[in-house]
Amino acid sequence: MYLRHYLKLFGLILLVSGASAQDIKVKVFQEFSELEEIYFNKSDNIVHVINFWATWCKPCVKELPYIDALSEKFKNEVKVTLVSLDFPRKMETKLKPYIIQNKVRSEVVLLDDGKVNEWIDKVDPSWSGAIPATVIFYNGKKLFFEKEFHSMAELEDIILEIKNNN
């Protein structure tokens, strides 16, 4: 009975939003090296914000609106990539509905590389593996944060700092 109500509510949300889970494109990376090659260490005069998160992580979900808003706030100066660590089998039932319901505007990719111990140090040697975690690149400079952000102002200060100290 509850499942039927949930499905009706989910259908209503999709109808109201005008999007469906099938409309949402989430690129899946089977290996961290594929993700690293495309998204890390860019030198293109754009601040790249890469956030590792999951729909099941409460601090991740809490900070996501602030991170997602960076692209809008800084227009062509900031590129946000949200790297989901959700289980691939939950992409249609959890990840895509979350993206739709919360009107996520940033690019979302899913990392399905179970060899976490092999790639965590490549992101940052100080990373314990806990999420949320955020890497910010700008013209060869890199900042790493293994914490939850609590405001847009906190992120804005970091973006301005990395841009001005370069």
SSE layout and pairing:
Elements: H1 2-17, E1 27-29, H2 32-39, E2 47-53, H3 58-74, E3 78-84, H4 91-101, E4 107-111, H5 116-123, E5 133-138, E6 141-145, H6 152-164
Parallel strand pairs: 1-4, 2-3, 3-4
Antiparallel strand pairs: 2-5, 5-6
Concise synopsis of the structure shown:
The protein is α/β, with parallel strands linked by helices and 166 residues long.
Can you tell me about this structure?
The longest helix has 17 residues, at 58-74. The chain starts with a helix and ends with a helix. The protein has six helices and six strands. It is α/β, with parallel strands linked by helices and 166 residues long. The chain has one domain (19-164): Glutaredoxin (3-Layer(aba) Sandwich), CATH 3.40.30.10.
Question: Which CATH class applies here?
Answer: Alpha Beta
Distance N to C terminus: 58 Å
For this structure, the CATH topology is Glutaredoxin
The amount of beta strand, in percent, is 15-25%
Summarize model confidence as the mean pLDDT: 87
* Helix-strand category: alpha/beta
List keywords for this structure.
166 residues; alpha/beta; Glutaredoxin; six-stranded mixed β-sheet; 6 helices; 6 strands
